[in-house]
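Next comes a single protein record:
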Amino acid sequence: MLKLPSVDQLIGEFDTVLRTLAAPAASVRSHPDRDIADVELQAAEKNHAAGLMRVNHCGEVCAQALYQGQALTARDPAAREALKQAAAEEVEHLAWTRQRLDELGSHRSLLNPLWYAGSFAMGVTAGLIGDKWNLGFLAETERQVTAHLESHLAQLPEQDAKSRAIVTQMAIDESSHAEQAVALGAAELPLPVTRLMTATSKVMTTLSYHI
């Protein structure tokens, strides 16, 4: 049975929103690019790297909102804990991508509040449907994110070792989240749902690359 959140929980959830969208994120682990020297990129290469990292940062904003909504409506404590653990690692990804965007002299997506709201709504809906579908949504999301990150590794300038180190570690983490969700009993989502998720992701990544 779904338990309604307390006032304290709601305040905590609102604090998560503000911290995700406005406050600088902190990373417990060392940044993957910490010991890598930056290199001079040509203007076009720098802009492309920044666009890809902006997409990745936006994806982490969406992940925070998605997991927040899913954890809020999850019934099984194990599923809820898995979602919270995944969200904690996504905070580190937020910190890594935001710092890299600063180093590249670029900005975060101006559409982040919109993506956050939409992702939170999807997370709440997934949780209300049931835990196995909630975990299935988590697993499929992480599979698609991993695919995006791997495609970014193929697109990033070869000499941009700092961005590549960040994206590589993010892909490892996201794949691990998907495996954990499957181990906890994630259901395989119907093909129309996965296709809709792919189409929605395409819109988000295209707009976030530019805006």
The chain has one domain: 41-210.
